[in-house]
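Allow me, if you will, to draw on your knowledge of protein folds for a short while. I have a record of one protein: its chain in single-letter code and its fold written as discrete structure tokens. Kindly check, if you would, that the fold set down in the tokens agrees with what the sequence suggests. Thank you for your consideration; the sequence and its tokens are set out here:
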Amino acid sequence: MSTTDDYRTGKIVEGIRKAEMVLDNRATYPIGDPALERIREKIVAFRPVWITSEQAVELIRQAEMAAVGERVCRALHPESPVTQTVFLDELAEAMAGVEKAEIVTAAEAERIVTRQSRHRFIASMVSGKYLELCAAWPPDCVFCKAERAGIRCIEKSVLNSIL
């Protein structure tokens, strides 16, 4: 499971880079390959789930702190559209501490989500809690790439259990 420290140190970007190399070359890895299995385990541990902007707003309202920053995966795909991620609680603090996000009020975070409402959001678990609300860009999203490679990881149904 990824931790706030993985995000703070940038280790998460390196992990995404490695996963994408394997996923982008999926045809060269036979079924049951240990590299694919390691990636599956790491990706599934995030317990990613598609959520609506309304659910994202509710998670923001339940949080003690919010920060807004660029999508983590955009470091690997600078040509992708600019969308922002809302980080919550200790992940917000960690990302702001390394100047990868800016602490904002709940109302400001809600405005970011509302402005990006044409996008679906992926909530992902970090340090055992849903702390990252990403306006994912599916062509470059590691979770979406995993799905396209046959690794089922994103919950398709609305999960009220995260709220």
Remarks:
- The two ends are 20 Å apart (CA to CA).
- The longest strand covers residues 121-126.
